[in-house]
Design a protein that fits this description.
Layout (H helix, E strand, L loop, with lengths): L11 H12 L1 H36 L3 H5 L1 E5 L4 E5 L6 E9 L3 E5 L18 H4 L7 E7 L2 E7 L5 H9 L5 E6 L4 E9 L9 E3 L4 H6 L11 E5 L5 E4 L3 E4 L2 E5 L3 E9 L1 H27 L11 H5 L3 H11 L8 H15 L16 E3 L9 E3 L1 H20 L9 H20 L10 H56 L1
Antiparallel strand pairs: 1-14, 2-13, 3-10, 3-14, 4-8, 5-6, 5-9, 7-8, 10-11, 12-13, 15-16
Keywords: Bacterial flagellum, Cell projection, Cilium, Coiled coil, Flagellum, Secreted
Family: Belongs to the FliD family.
Subcellular location: Secreted; Bacterial flagellum
Length: 491
């Protein structure tokens, strides 16, 4: 039982609180240690995210299209074109003689022409078309397959058309009220079947041909174009076609000339993007490795934060987080290995075996910590002269001295990220699976046990002060009794 200091006049609450503040100091220290471990864990994970960004860019550095990307430009409006990395450079003359079209079928006459009232597509078929009072069935066949449709007298025309559109045979069907006609069309262009692109069969096929007037299919034509020589005609079901790595799209009947050239500027941009990301990472990590710890700033406890403004907390923690990765051997080792990769010669059968030959060299300023500088003019010349050799320099899939620079860097990134994950895990990792996580688990366990101990200590303090209060209260009662009796005897 907790009692106030009525007998002693002492502020027992404040005394116990002060005593517990002193007892709680080890717990506060553990809370600060936990925060610091969490900061360290997050700092390592941020490093891994940066390495992952560089690793993703490295994927592009291994692709042919990065170094041998092509650019296509077309004169006239008949054709547009895109060139893949495999496209041959040069001029392509294309004459489009016919565009691909989709087959369609429209009611020959208005469906309400012989009616007293206009057709209601949402009313029962039996009410709208007396000859189909018992329903019916028909089959539609396209290049995508065939499907049998059955309708009842209480189905509406819109119900039937909706079923046709959703049957998966590549047909769209609808009734237009203003035209008062049904339209049925293929979702794909081209002449894909012998005969009609939408063939109607079955006992109820006359519902489509006679009742709805869908008996005059049009369209369904292939695109046709002359490539180079007018005698070399090519057809396509669609308004696009690929020749020699060039994708042509046909817009109208007419002629166009397509020029395909090597897109050197695109290759320069991708290479410099990779170098820029590398420079950004080594600069940022270099700063973290050399950043000194500020030992005057420990992590704040929750109690300390309650007494501070948000901006004060932010500034304090900025100082407290300094030096979390100071001198880390795994990160410094990774940076050293990556710098070494840029200096290495790459043995290959191309014209270039060292980065300096294509305009990429290490900065002469030692303060740049090995950042790279790119001479874009020299790089452009190298790509123009032998783009494949530039690719081999970066991504040659060999062994030892034949390993491309990017592949060497990828190996370093992979090993480093694995080491960091063993120490700091990743967002989806369980604490027990990595070193810092296990430290957090152990610390949580210690904090929980210490909290139980604090509870016992606080109960003991209250018990002791309660006993003291009771003893003094008893003494005061005895003293009062004696004074009363002594006072009575003197009378």
């Amino acid at each position: 039982m907790r009692v106030a200091g009525n007998a002693t006049g002492m502020d027992i609450d404040q005394i116990v609180s002060d005593l517990m503040d002193a007892e709680r100091q080890p717990l506060n220290k553990m809370e600060q240690d936990k925060t610091k471990i969490e900061w360290e864990r997050d700092a390592y994970r941020d490093v891994n995210k940066q390495f992952l960004e560089l690793d993703n860019l490295a994927l592009d550095m291994k692709l042919d299209r990065t170094y041998q990307s092509k650019e296509a430009s077309a004169t006239g409006s008949a054709v547009t074109a895109e060139a893949s990395s495999s496209a041959g450079e040069g001029r392509y003359n294309v004459e489009v003689t016919q565009l691909a079209s989709a087959a369609y079928n429209i009611s020959e006459t208005k469906l309400s022409a012989d009616r007293d009232e206009k057709l209601d597509p949402d009313d029962d078929i039996g009410n709208q078309f007396a000859e189909w009072a018992d329903g019916g069935s028909f089959t539609i066949t396209t290049s995508e397959g065939e499907h049998e449709f059955t309708f009842e007298s209480d189905d509406s025309l819109n119900d039937v058309l909706k079923d046709i559109s959703g049957a998966g045979v590549g047909v769209r069907a609808f009734y237009d009220g203003s035209a008062d006609k049904v339209m049925m069309e293929r979702s794909e262009t081209g002449n894909r079947m012998d005969g009609d692109e939408m063939a109607f069969t079955g006992d109820g096929a006359t519902f489509l041909t006679d009742t709805l007037g869908l008996n005059n299919e049009r369209g369904g034509a292939d695109a046709a174009f002359n490539y180079g020589d007018s005698d070399f005609e090519i057809t396509s079901h669609e308004n696009n076609y690929s020749v020699n790595g060039v994708d042509f799209t046909f817009s109208e009947v007419g002629s166009s000339t397509v020029n395909v050239t090597n897109n050197v500027d695109g290759a320069v941009e991708k290479i410099t993007d990779f170098v820029d990301k590398y420079n950004e990472i080594i600069e940022g990590l270099g700063d973290k490795l050399s950043e000194r710890k500020n030992r005057d700033y420990d992590p704040l406890t929750e109690e300390q934060k309650e007494a501070m403004e948000d901006d004060e907390i932010e500034k304090w923690e900025e100082e407290a987080k300094k030096g979390l990765l100071q001198g880390d051997s795994v990160i410094s080792g990774a940076l050293s290995q990556m710098r070494g990769s840029w200096y290495n010669k790459v043995e290959n059968d191309g014209a270039f075996n060292h980065l300096s030959q294509i305009g990429i060299e290490t900065s002469s300023n030692y303060r740049d910590r090995g950042k790279l500088e790119v001479d874009e003019d020299k790089l452009r010349e190298a790509l123009t002269e032998d783009a494949d050799s530039v690719k081999q320099l970066f991504s040659n899939n060999g062994e030892g001295e034949s390993t491309g620079i990017v592949r060497q860097i990828e190996d370093t990134i992979s090993n480093t990220r694995q080491s960091i994950e063993r120490k700091a895990g990743k967002d989806t990792s369980l604490n027990q699976s990595f070193t810092l996580g296990r430290e957090l688990v152990n610390l949580d366990d210690r904090m929980l046990k210490f909290q139980d101990r604090l509870t016992q200590i606080e109960d003991r303090y209250w018990s002791e002060f309660g006993a003291m209060e009771k003893a003094i209260q008893d003494m005061n009662s005895q003293s009062s009794y004696i004074q009363q009796n002594f006072g009575g005897g003197m009378m």
